[in-house]
Amino acid sequence: MKVLARYYPQYISARPTPPPAPDDDLEYYYSDREGTNKHLRDYWQVVLKRLRYMVPIFCGTVALGFLITIFSPTLYTARSTLKIEPQSPSFTGVAEAPNNSGSDRYDYYQTQYALLSGAPLAARVIKTLGLQSNPALTTSRFNLVSWVMGLVESALNSIAGLFQTQSTSIGRGRSTTYELGVAPALIGRYRSFLKIEPVKNTRLVDVSFSTPDPRLSQELANNHATAFIQMILENRFNLTQEARDFLQKKLAELRGKVVRAENELNTFRQKHGVVSMEKGENIVVDRLVDINKQLTQVRSERIQAESLYQMTRNKNSEYLAQVLSNPLILQIKGTLANLETEKGRLSSIYTPEHPRLQELNQQIAEAKRGLASEVGTIVRGIESNYAAARSREQALEDEAKNQQQTALNLKEVGVDYAVLNEEVVVNRGLYENVLKRMNETNVANDLAASNIQVVQRAEQPTLPSSPQLMRNLMVAAFLGLVLAVAFAFFLEYMDATMHTPQQVWSAVSLATLGVVPHVRSLSQRYHPMLSENTASNRLEPGTAVDGVGREIVVAHDQFSIVAESYRTIRTALMLSQAERPPKVILLTSPCPNEGKTVTTLNLAIALAQGGKRVLAIDADLRKGRCHQLLHRKNYRGLANVLTGDVDVKQVIQETSIKDFYLLPRGSLPPNPADLLMSQRMRDILSELRTLFDFVVIDSPPIIAVSDAAALSVLCDGVVLVFNGEKTTTPSARRATERLDKVGAHILGVILNAIDIRDPEYLDYRSYYPSYYASIDEDSGSEFEKA
Q1: From CA 552, how far away is CA 625, in angstroms rounded?
Q2: pLDDT given at position 694
Q3: What angle is formed at CA 11 by the lines to CA 8 and CA 13, rounded to 5 degrees?
Q4: Which residues contact residue 162 at a Cβ distance below 8 angstroms, ignoring those fewer than 6 apart?
Q5: Quick one: which H or E segment has residue 77?
Q6: Nearest 5°: phi and psi at 80?
Q7: C-beta neighbour count of 193 within 10 angstroms
């Protein structure tokens, strides 16, 4: 019991109340506790669980890598190094400045790498070295990878050919144009030996060849690099020659245009008497500009004089700047102010008829007349200046109109002159530029400078470069490990069944009463029944049972791990309700073929072996087979009792197992659900409670039909049987929900057909072999004494 305690929370009989549903439309809600708080050991458990699938995948991948290595040909690698400066080829033969732009430089180098590995260069080298008949290129040794890739490529081409149109097929059937007369297959073979490897963070690139012949590898590496430089120079020379031919043709054309434009311009000058229309050489235009400048200045003076004149007309003469700043007027105003002051002082002392006051009045009047006279003089000067400014402005305006008319007349001629002159300037500029570029091209055409050079020539290799057995095996082992682990986790992800009590608890929040191992996962040391000569297989007199099927393990082999599992379930069931154990127990499963019937009979026999009177009722009135497993007849049974044809005591059959009885299903009725829901069924169960200590009922699957749901409310408790290889989480939840809807009391779950090789059941594998070994030793010694 201590061994199983860590796996089964069955001693906590009360089922925890599920959390409230998050939506009114959902009646049940389950929290997936396995999906949270994942620990590293959980992933390790997955690996151990799927180890029997991972080992073949790993070994197969390593074996495949070994076969590929064995069948791969021996190759020798020679390497030469090129230095490529970041300079784009010039179409005119003139070297251009290096382009430091990141994207342009990247595109340039990628272009060079593509040219290095391209078919034209390969055809050039093959043609130059005469490799058309070289055995290394014309014949190829068997290569497993190439063979597999060839098959895949052929299959893909065949599939693609089914979708090609008729026009495409006709075009493909035409004759192929070979590069420099070299067959494409030969070029492809050559390029399969080639490898271009740019040296990181440098301007160097390695050109390597791997062939079966070390001397051929060296020759190809050196000649490929040299041929690349020659090809670049030839391409540049051809482009330069094309540019020179174009420039010569363009130069002759521009020369004729310049001569024709200059002749037309000279004819126009002679016809209209125009020497030049350039700035500084045209007198009419210069005169018009000068008059406009003078007119602007005179107009400004007139506006200023007019503003002063308007102030005098508005009787504001005394506030004019000329009046305010005139020294004589300032002196008169000062004298007048003094007189006024003196008059005010004496007025407070003398009467107006005083001689002194009369004298002061005459002096003040004289001063005012002098002030008015001076202001009038200034005003008349302003009026005179305004009249003169208007006269000068009018005269300049008349002169400007006359000069403007003359300029307009000349402008009509100047438009044609400018067009002809511009044509001469443009054609002469183009001619000079083309002539300069032509001279530069002629000079650069004789230069054979290249921005590519060989910095290291290839040497003949002495040791083969491939195949590398250890490296290939390490790669195959790593790939096999990745594939195996990925496959294991994929199986775990796709597996919706419940293999452990923890998964049952997470799926339906039900305690697991016990687990039953699958016989297929047991070896002889776990299951003595698997061996015909084991001492433990010879039971004591009185315990051997005949007349039952081999599926009833509890009757055949009491010392097996399967029998011990059912006894564990018996104990958990007895303790599920401590005060009063359930007497009428219903066993059902979510779906068919999940081991429900076998589990029912084994559990019932385990209860009988505990000294209790036990009755097994086959309530599966559709496909019940309890009588077949116990080798009993089925001419009358539960269906006949429910229809009233016979009394229940008359159809109860004894079995070969002490205190264990069977009530078979009987005849197949047309309405099983109605019979099981009848009052007669209630009365039968009430009667059987008084006759037996335990009544174990085998019912149909809960999801398929409603029979089990109808019986569940008549029993003390329901035990769900889940198959570790078949029962999925959704089906388990549907079964639990159906029982909850009718108010059935679920005692727990029996997890059937579990794989004992699962890492979760390590204690099984470590405890029971030693337990059965001790039993075998005791049984063997007693047998020898007998």
Answers
A1: 13
A2: 94
A3: 110
A4: none
A5: strand 76-84
A6: -120, 155
A7: 21
Average pLDDT over residues 223-238: 86
Strands 512-517, 653-654: pairing kind: unpaired
For the entire predicted model, the pTM comes to 0.53
Q: What angle do CA 473, 474, 475 make, to 5 degrees?
A: 90
For the stretch 513-536, pLDDT in tens is 989 887 766 654 455 444 444 434
- Please give the residue that has the higher pLDDT: either 554 or 736: 736
- From the DSSP assignment, how many helices (H) and strands (E) are in the chain? 27, 12
* Residue 351: pLDDT over 50: yes
Contacts 24+ apart (CB under 8 A), 308-316: 308/382, 308/385, 308/386, 309/382, 309/383, 309/386, 312/379, 312/382, 312/383
What pLDDT is stored for residue 262 in this prediction? 77
Per 3-state DSSP, what percentage of the chain is helix, strand, and coil (rounded to 5)? 60, 10, 30
**Dihedral sign, Cα of residue 353, residue 357, residue 363, residue 367:** negative
At residue 606 the predicted structure's pLDDT band, cuts being 50, 70 and 90, is: very high
By residue count, the chain amounts to 786
Mean pLDDT along residues 484-513: 87
Residues 6 or more apart whose CB falls under 8 angstroms from that of 210 comprise 75, 76, 77, 193, 195, 217, 465, 466
End-to-end Cα spacing for the chain: 33
Query: Is there a cis peptide before residue 56, judged by omega within 30 degrees of 0?
Result: no
Among residues 708, 663, 709, 671, which one has the least CA distance to residue 687?
663
For the record, the structure tokens of 546 come out as 């005949």
Q: Which helix (H) or strand (E) holds 375?
A: helix 355-444
| Local structure of 107: helix, strand or coil | helix
Higher-scoring residue by pLDDT: 329, 221: 221
Residue 751 backbone class (left: φ over 0; alpha: ψ -120 to 50; beta: rest): beta
Per-residue pLDDT of 580-591, as tens digits, reads: 889 999 999 999
Cβ atoms of 636 and 715 closer than 8 Å: no
d(CA 538, CA 783): 10
752 near 721, Cβ under 8 Å?
A: yes
- Could you give the CA distance from residue 613 to residue 239 in angstroms, rounded to a whole number? 108
Please list, in sequence order, all residues whose beta carbon lies within 8 angstroms of the beta carbon of residue 297, skipping any fewer than 6 positions away. none
pLDDT for position 737: 93
CA angle 301, 302, 307 (to 5 degrees): 100
Average pLDDT over residues 309-317: 62
Q: How far apart are CA 504 and CA 501, in angstroms?
A: 5
Pairing mode, strands 660-663 and 614-618: parallel
